[in-house]
Amino acid sequence: MLRKKGLWIGLIALLVLGGGGTAAYKLWFAPRAPAEDTVAFQTATATRGSISLTAAGSGTLVAADTANLAFSAGSAVEEILVKVGDHVQAGDILARANDAAARQALAEAEQSVIDAEIEVALATGQAELAVAKAQAELAAAQEALDALVAWNPDTVELAKAKASLASAQAAYQTTSAKAGMVDQQNAPVRISLDQAISALANAQQAYAEAMNPERDWEKGIEDSRTSAAAALVRAQQNLELAQADYDLAMADTSASSDVQNAWAQVLSAREAVADLEEEPTSDEIAAAERTVKEAQLTLQQAQLELGNAGQAVAQRWAELALEQAQMNLAVAQETVNGMVLTAPFAGTVVQVAIEVGEVANGTAIVLSNLDTPVIEFWVDESDMSSVALGNPVSIVFSALPELTYNGEVYQVDPEMVTVGNTPAVQAWATIDTGAHTVTLLGGMNADVDIVAGEATDVVLVPVEALRTIGEEQHAVFIVQPDGSLEMRVVEVGLSDYVNAEIRSGLEVGEVVSVGNSATAAAAETTTSEESFPPGGMMFEGGAMPPGGGIMPGGGRP
User: How would you class 213 by CB atoms within 10 Å of its CB: exposed for 0-12, middle for 13-18, buried for 19 or more?
Assistant: First the structure.
């Protein structure tokens, strides 16, 4: 193919260089005419202008967003806060329904989750807790054993403990000295208390001896017993008086408690020093080793319980029940939330299909975003390649034929649709509603032209002037002042039914041949074999247009 193409182009170039342009035209491109007819070329002048490739479609003005709002459950409508035509903001409350039943279901779902969580905790928590507790106990026992085995006096801590002991002893001596002075001042009441205590003890002994049953036979024993009882009572009374005097004397001083506290500090300091100085015994080490072994056995048992197959199954069932309860809770919460209708976006209420007091089922309120409408449109499947994201569109409404709106394709549906029993491409385009001060209504029908390609201020020639000389290669025949033809290779851009864009190889004002009109038969031949037929259209480079067609110059691909 490439070799054949090179031979073809070389042959044409040879003819051109040799002044054979007219001959080449007559030999390969000019239509055959009867020998008796004289050939007269039809010509056209290259001009500067614009060209665009469009595809036609039809569409409807629709809202950018539409929401059919419904309550989450059938219930009596309690309040409607909007009417048709109201403009609302996102999040505004539109209507409420009775949510008592929904809230009851939510409370039950919440309790079910709590119960399920408890079951999971019971299934897993006890075994895990036992393992954790056993691990902690083993760690503590091992630490205690290690400390005993590796015992060594801590000289720093021992010095601190001895210093604390010396300080406690000094404080005790000082406190004792102060208490001694107080004791001297209170010596009389202390002596009286001691005497009363001794007298009471004697009286108790005398009373006990008198009341001995073995003395029942003695003469006058009853008098002795009465006397002993009276003496015991007096002794008790005397002790109470002496105790009261002593308490009164000691009420103004805390010397005794201070001494006791100081002595307690001394004992604590002595114990701390002894603990630091005393080396662990073999019995203590053996006991610590037994504690470690017991902790190890306890941990092993807890781990066996945790890994038990039955325990694992019970745990999984509990977890599944919890997951189900949580899903039920989420549904119940959504149901409660759905008993209040709120606007999902800013828009206009276009329908209110409910009344207060009735049980709402199905769509209750329809909300549409009419502030920024869009065009939903359809084009024939043969023009599918013209509908691409970002392509400009021009829109003319049937009700407003004098006004043209601009927009842009922003969505092309991935599947074909059927419109009037014809397959079509469904797409969506924006629309600049601010272009005209006219109120547009949803549902307005419109004609939509999609611009698939556009070029401005370019060199144009009639499509009949193009000749195909190879794959994606084209030429035109330039008419010289003397009437001869010069074949020139050109680069073709966009092409429609009438004109073709020439990107290079031709200048504005140059005259090109578009065929000849020698006879009716010749013209008929030109029309059937070389002219661009109705319905044909080319994209950049002379590619086949949507729906089929003929390549530039009338040659078929």
Answer: exposed
Parent domain of 119: 112-151+283-324
pLDDT single digits (tens) 390-419: 999 999 999 999 999 999 999 999 999 999
Structure tokens at 429: 């385009």
For the chain, report the end-to-end CA distance as a whole number of angstroms: 14
Helices (H), 62-154: 100-120, 126-149
Please report how the helices 126-149 and 282-306 are oriented relative to each other, as an axis angle in degrees rounded to 10: 160
Examine residue 12 and state whether it is found in any structural domain, yes or no.
Answer: no
Q: Are residues 351 and 383 in the same domain?
A: no
**Residue-wise pLDDT tens digits, 352-376:** 999 998 888 889 999 988 888 999 9
Say if residues 203 and 232 touch (Cβ distance below 8 Å). yes
pTM equals 0.44
Task: Give the CA distances from residue 98 to residues 95, 102, 344, 361, 536, in Å, rounded to whole numbers and listed in that order.
Answer: 10, 8, 21, 13, 65
- Residue 330: C-alpha distances to residues 106, 112, 317 (Å): 9, 12, 20
Q: What is the CATH number of the domain that holds 80?
A: 2.40.50.100
CB count in 10 Å sphere of residue 178: 14
For residue 1, is it within any domain?
no
- Please state the domain count of the chain: 4
- pLDDT tens digit sequence for 161-212: 888 888 888 887 787 777 666 666 667 777 887 888 888 889 888 888 888 8
CA 518-521-523 angle, 5° bins? 60
Residues 244, 347 share a domain: no
Are residues 378 and 487 part of one domain? Answer: yes
User: How far is the CA of 221 from the CAs of 199, 217, 287, in angstroms?
Assistant: 22, 8, 65
Same domain for 442 and 426?
yes
Q: Is there a contact between 54 and 450 (Cβ–Cβ < 8 Å)?
A: yes
**Cα–Cα dist 193/87, whole Å:** 99
Residue 321: enclosing H or E segment and its boundaries?
A: helix 309-337
Answer whether residue 379 is part of any domain: yes
